[in-house]
Amino acid sequence: MSAEATNPEAHAEVRAELRRRGRSRLDLRRLGRAALLGPTSRDRLPDAIGHVAEAHRAHHPDADLSLLRRAYLLAETSHRGQMRKSGEPYITHPLAVTLILAELGAETTTLTASLLHDTVEDTDVTLDQVRAEFGDEVAFIVDGVTKVEKIDYGAAAEPETFRKMLVATGNDVRVMSIKLADRLHNMRTLGVMRPEKQARIAKVTRDVLIPLAERLGVQALKTELEDLVFAILHPEEYEHTRALIASHAGESDPLPAIADSVRTVLREAGIAAEVQVRPRHFVSVHRISRTRGELRGSDFGRILVLVGENADCYAVLGELHTCFTPVVSEFKDFIAAPKFNLYQSLHTAVAVPEGYVAEVIVRTRQMHRVAEAGVVALGNPYATAETPDSDEERVDPTRPGWLSRLLDWQQSAPDPDTFWTVLRAELAQDREITVFRAEGGSALGTISLPGGASCIDAAYAMHGAAAHGCIGARVNGRLTSLSSPLSDGDTVQLLLAQDASSGPAPDWLDHARTPAARIAIATWLQNHPGGAGPATAAPRAPLSVVGARGDGGNAVADLPDAHVRLAGCCTPVPPDAVAGFVVRGGAVTVHRVHCPAVAQMRSLGRTSVAVHWRATADCRVTLLAESFGRPHLLADLTEAIAREGVEVVSATVEPPVEQRVRHSYTLQLPDAAGLPALMRAMRDVPGVYDVSRA
To answer: What is the side-by-side order of every strand in the sheet holding 432-439?
Structure first.
């Protein structure tokens, strides 16, 4: 877990930017000398962690520092004699990691575990000793960060270490906080590694740890990790960006003057606010240079406005949009609709008279703390609950939906290569939606899914393995295909087949976005190479059953000797209000008066013919039945029709599409009054979800 600085010249600008932000850096040489002196007296803190205690007290004035002192003494003693490849005492590494977390506002338990995070892995200290000295909670966090033995796992050691950390993070998010700080310090001190090893570590950081930092909302760590990875993996683009920033440093920066104007506007409006200029980090400058081309002075930073209350944020926004010209397309409200990583702010951009456009971020101070430190700023989620035994799963009330999904699907991915590949693909998803699950039309809860997820993903998130039998879905009350993508706020009702032999179709893999769904579908298809039988069989040719037919039914036209026929588009039956039109050959076609064809006929100048119904009660009607494919469905439907005493004049069954089948029946009813009962009987047939008149 240790190394020494990468090329100092390559990262000079990164360090300079950090200093401009006021973020203190650890003096490794001074700490090394302090560590070599060994522990101090029991009456005061060791000099080596005095600055850690100072940073901790800035966020937690009443913190008990005795726990940190004991943790440092154990860490210093156990690591004594171990040196980093750079030649400094090894204790400087856990101290640096702890300082990073202390500056972010981590609470005492996290800092204690951070000081000890390498002891079980790299020294003779055992987990039982840590538990006996510092309690179950610290031991749980230390164990979560500890790597698995490479001797036991070989090439799979790294994936399995991340799997172990993810599972531990699901029980306590502080595990991943320490891992992120650990990786940041190692990325800062990576230069003694071979170039190929630097690239390997940087790629894992890019693919896994940076997305995790983003999802946990720890922007302070994420941005610096991005810059360090950028310098290693893209040295040419990094040098170009460094040159851009250096050239801007020699020019007049318009942002301080714009910030002064914003302060004046807010002061005159009576809004207490702190206005800062926030320089962009290297990757951010690189991204906007690719989208905007040549950069202007205001593109190298943003204006940050900090206020006390949520309402003040909108008051600031109103003043900015009143006193400056807003760029409407740049406005985003992440307060009303927070990002899935806890981030909240108002984003806007305003044009000033000098011709510059400045991006402005407005947030409360609490929002700012969470935006910078993410879950680290939440403190101890178990502070108000009794800490359970270490061998029991602890449910974190702050656990986000994406983490729950990771914990669910990793159990179905026993192969380390599959786990590693799917983990990186899952973390590449940078957007999340929330959908409502419903049964019988009533909402029963919410489910978090990645952006672009389909009904198939929702099915496996809701029903697990039972989703193999999913044969349809209703989204916001409307029937839709399983491949349909979902949007934020949709209400989803999944329809499951009663037939136990039903299973997913191979093309489901093309529409599944979540790892849980893809793994479950692929596993089922592998175990059932023959498919799911009738439900997934190849489409059949349309099946038609035709009987004797009289086109006119009970309709009589007020036109002598005219041949009358009922329109197939609307199939009128008594006592529908109808209209007739003469068509080619002199025949009269009868439509319901609300049929779209009636308006079309009249627009063409066709003269309508009066039509009435005979006194007899029998009638002919065409019904459409939509259902999910299953064996014996046609037989069950025709039996239901026969039980109602209705004659089938003709029937057509269309080929199944996505396990759904459409039936068309032309029926002769002995009494038109029996039509509603007939349609209810057909809907009661298992698998039929809708019956309507043609």
So the answer is: 442-450, 432-439, 491-496, 470-475, 478-480
pLDDT band at 227 (very low <50, low <70, confident <90, very high): very high
pLDDT of residue 111: 95
The token duo for 59 is 């966020």
Q: Which of 121, 136, 507, 654 is catalytic?
A: 121
Q: Summarize pLDDT for 555-586 with one digit per residue, the tens.
A: 777 777 777 777 777 778 777 788 888 877 67
**Type of residue at 129:** Q
Out of 103, 122, 426, 490, pick the active-site residue. Answer: 122
Mean pLDDT of 499-527: 82
Per-residue DSSP letters for 502-571? ----GGGGGT--SHHHHHHHHHHHHH-TT-SGGGGPPPPPPEEEE----TTTTEEESSTT--EEE-TTT-
DSSP classification of residue 518: H
Residue 358: strand pairing partners: 350
Query: Between vectors from CA 102 to CA 96 and to CA 103, what angle results, nearest 5°?
Result: 95
249 neighbors 208 (Cβ within 8 angstroms): no
pTM score: 0.68
Q: Contact 110/218 with Cβ under 8 angstroms?
A: no
Note if 122 is an active site residue.
Answer: yes
Give the other-Cβ count within 10 Å of 357's Cβ.
Answer: 16
Q: What CA–CA distance (Å, rounded) separates 632 from 629?
A: 9
Q: Distance between CA 112 and CA 596 in Å, rounded?
A: 75
C-alpha triplet 409, 415, 421: angle, nearest 5°: 70
Q: Which amino acid is residue 422, in one-letter code?
A: V
Give the residue from 129, 151, 187 showing the smallest Cα distance to 11. Answer: 187
Alpha-carbon distances of 473 from 283, 405, 566, rounded to whole Å: 42, 21, 35
Beta bridge partners of 262: none
Residue 647 appears among annotated catalytic residues: no
Residue type, 518: R
